[in-house]
C-alpha cells in the first residue's frame, strides 16, 4: 500500500497568505506529521510530492504518484477568500457510485467530525476539475483545511497542538478509509478518559479546556 501526500504549493508559489502565514508552510508541516504518524502506526508506505520549500509543478506531482502506482493521492491545502471551515474535493467527472466517492465519504466523516469538535464549519463534500484530481490514475482527494484569512481558523492553524491533533485525525481518517493494518495499537488518552478515536479525545479535551482545565491529549498503548 502506497499513499502519496501532496503538500500544496511551495517555492515561488506560496499559495494563500494572510495573518502572517503561508499556505505552503502549513501544508508541508501537516503532510510531514501525517507521514510520521502513519508509518509509525500502520503497515503502509507514504511518499510526499515535495520534502521542502520548492517549486513542483502539478504535472510533476501527478506523474510521481502515477509512476509509483500509488494506491491513494491526498492533496493538502488551506483555503482563503472570506469563508470558514473545512471542505474536500474529488474529481467532478466521478459518479456518486465510484470507488473514490465511497473512500472520500469515509475520509470526510472522520475529518468533519474532528473539525466540528473544534467548532469549525463543515462545508461539505465537493467536486471540482482540479488537475491533481483529474490526472491521477488512483483515487485522489483534495482537502481544504480551514481559511487562512479567517480569524478563528487562523488561531487554530497557528496552534502547534492543533496541528498535531489534526495530523492524528488525518492519520486515523486515512487508516479507516484505506483499511490499513495497525503496527501498534494506540489509544488517545485525555486526563479523564481514554478513547480509541482522536475525534472524541479532542472533544473531551476541548470541553475540559472550556471549563478552565488544562487538558492534554497523550497517546498510550491499548491493552
Ligand atoms: Zn492551495
From TrEMBL:
Residues spanning the signal sequence:
none
Domain of life, per the record? Bacteria
Pfam families listed in its UniProt record? Amidase_3 (PF01520), SPOR (PF05036)
Q: Which InterPro entries match?
A: MurNAc-LAA_cat, N-acetylmuramoyl_amidase_3, SPOR-like_dom
Molecular function GO terms recorded: N-acetylmuramoyl-L-alanine amidase activity; peptidoglycan binding
One Gene Ontology term, aspect cellular component: outer membrane-bounded periplasmic space
Gene3D superfamilies, per the entry: Zn-dependent exopeptidases
Q: Which GO terms describe its biological process?
A: peptidoglycan catabolic process
Keywords, in A-Z order:
Hydrolase
Would you tell me the protein name for this molecule? N-acetylmuramoyl-L-alanine amidase
From which organism does this entry originate? Answer: Caldanaerobius fijiensis DSM 17918
Amino acid at each position: 500500500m502506497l499513499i502519496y501526500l501532496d503538500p500544496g504549493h511551495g517555492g515561488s508559489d506560496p499559495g494563500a497568505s494572510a495573518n502572517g502565514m503561508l499556505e505552503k508552510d502549513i501544508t508541508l508541516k501537516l503532510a510531514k506529521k501525517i507521514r510520521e504518524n502513519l508509518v509509525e502506526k500502520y503497515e503502509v508506505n507514504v511518499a510526499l510530492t515535495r520534502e521542502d520549500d520548492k517549486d513542483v509543478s502539478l504535472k510533476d506531482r501527478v506523474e510521481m504518484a502515477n509512476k509509483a502506482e500509488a494506491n491513494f493521492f491526498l492533496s493538502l491545502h488551506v483555503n482563503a477568500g472570506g469563508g470558514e471551515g473545512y471542505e474536500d474535493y474529488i474529481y467532478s467527472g466521478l459518479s456518486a457510485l465510484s470507488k473514490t466517492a465511497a473512500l472520500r465519504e469515509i475520509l470526510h466523516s472522520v475529518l468533519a467530525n474532528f473539525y466540528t469538535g473544534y467548532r469549525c464549519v463543515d462545508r461539505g463534500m465537493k467536486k471540482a476539475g482540479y488537475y491533481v484530481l483529474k490526472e491521477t490514475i488512483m483515487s485522489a482527494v483534495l482537502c481544504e483545511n480551514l481559511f487562512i484569512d479567517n480569524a478563528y481558523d487562523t488561531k487554530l492553524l497557528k496552534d502547534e497542538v492543533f496541528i498535531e491533533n489534526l495530523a492524528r485525525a488525518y492519520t486515523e481518517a486515512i487508516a479507516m478509509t484505506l483499511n490499513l493494518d495497525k503496527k501498534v495499537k494506540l489509544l488517545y488518552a485525555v486526563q479523564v478518559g481514554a478513547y480509541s478515536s482522536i475525534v472524541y479525545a479532542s472533544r473531551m479535551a476541548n470541553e475540559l479546556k472550556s471549563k478552565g482545565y488544562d487538558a492534554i491529549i497523550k497517546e498510550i498503548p491499548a491493552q
